[in-house]
Amino acid sequence: MWTGRQTLGSIDNTLKQLREQFEQIDTQIQASSRKMVELRQQEGARYKNLARIRLDQLISGEIVNGLDTADRRVTELLADRDRALAALKQEIEQARTQESLLAKKREEQSNEVATAAEKLDSVEAEVQSELEQDGAYQVQFETASKSDSVARHSEEKTARSEEDRVTKGRPYEEDPLFSYLWKRGYGTSRYSGNPLTRFLDSRVAGLCSFEEARQNYSMLLEIPKRLREHAERLRSAAQKELEILKAMEEKAAEEGGIPSKRTALEEAVQRTDKTDIEIRGFEDQIQGLQEKRASFAEGKDTYFRTCIDTLSSAFQRENLGALRQYVLTTSTSEDDVIVYELSELNENEKEVENAIGQNRQIYERQLSRIRELEGVRSRYKQKRYDDIHSVFQNGDLISLLLSQFVSGTAGGDALWHTLQQEHRYRRIRSNPVFGSGGFGWGGTWRLPFPGGGGSMPFPIPRGGGWRHGPSRGGMGSGGGFRTGGGV
């Protein structure tokens, strides 16, 4: 079993691992991109050598000058590209430094939240213990409990009656003769009709024994209404008894100093929320910078495209084509070596280009996974799953899923679904279903669970094993209480 904070720490470590892998891939792509330009420059150098060896001075001079100009331009562009990348890298590093500082601040604030929650939990447990020894409170609890039980029994009886009304009323409602007369109000003061209509309706009533059926159907409709009114009166009385019980609890809570502890916890939580918003802002900023850097990794930046276009333009000149044709007609070893080297360079370019393409796909997937896990972490914090009352039953399963997430065999949806399924709330000292908390109508003990302004994020079932009052074993037997993930 993992605590909520342990689980968040594992998510953070996984995110750190993904980011480190992302940086490695980015470095590889940048090196490959630079290698591609260098190979093209080497290709240009080989062509210049061929031009110097084999062509007349006029053509050779034109080619050499053209390739020299292209080479100088590419060298300048690469220097500009390196500076732009360095500036972008510095921006990312600065943003990550700020994010790291905020993460550290958030960890400190999380400790403050845990401390405040523990203090509140401890004080609530003490107050509950005192109420267990309070005779007047015990009497009121029993009164409220009995009143709630009577109201609940009446509500259940009403529900059954309403179900019977639907089931038993169906034959009447499906009888066309009965339905016709019932809708016209036959046999009641609201019925009207001319003599012929009255005569015919009386014949229809005789055919379907309407009067007896009308009395039975009327009673079938009336019973649920009366039971519902009675149940509502009982529930109103039970609610009044519960309000008295809650007032006694609130008074004890005030005297025990619970409100100030709650305020301290709420303020600590608000500080972490504010820091989380700031962290999210830097994550968005880093994401934007990474997308910008992705254009460099993919070779889509202006500098890289201009380098390739400049060299390609130089290679495609008419005189360079003449140079290639001339080489084919010679048989000297010197230019044969250069031609072989050009062939090798072309093969290397293809290999580098394939490597860049493969790494780009990995790069994009890795960037997507980082964003996906950041989204899971953000939802995790919003749900306050890192609260001291949160635990995750199967830590090994979560660890496995995080590993699979890194390897790409599990997605964010599967991870989040598992986190919800494995999540439970544990009781530490105080009992959230103590006294009025066990009636399912909103108790006094508001542990710092997400949802509802600090209240418990799930309804307390009435009449079940969670209801613990002073005459039912005090704080209750057994360990914690649990909900399904995501409720």
Structure description:
- This protein has 487 residues and is mostly helical.
- The protein has 2 domains: 2-130 and 263-423, no CATH class; 135-261.
- It has 12 helices and 3 strands, in the order E-H-H-H-H-H-H-H-H-H-H-E-H-H-E.
- It has helices at 4-54, 57-132, 135-174, 176-184, 195-207, 210-256, 258-297, 302-315, 318-328, 333-382, 395-407, 412-422, and strands spanning 2-3, 390-392, 423-425.
- Strands 1-2-3 form a 3-stranded antiparallel sheet.
* Assembly classification: single chain
**Low-pLDDT ranges:** 448-487
Q: How does the overall form come out from the CA principal axes?
A: elongated
The spatial strand order of the largest sheet comes to: 1-2-3
Global mean pLDDT = 79
Figure out the total of helices: 12
Distance from N terminus to C terminus (CA atoms, Å) equals: 20 Å
**What's the structural domain tally?**
2
- Radius of gyration using CA atoms only: 40 Å
Percent of residues in beta strands?
under 5%
Judged by helices, strands and strand pairing, the structural class is mainly alpha
- Give the biggest sheet: 3 strands, antiparallel
Order of helices and strands: EHHHHHHHHHHEHHE
Find the count of extended strands (DSSP E, 2+ residues): 3
- The level of helicity is over 70%
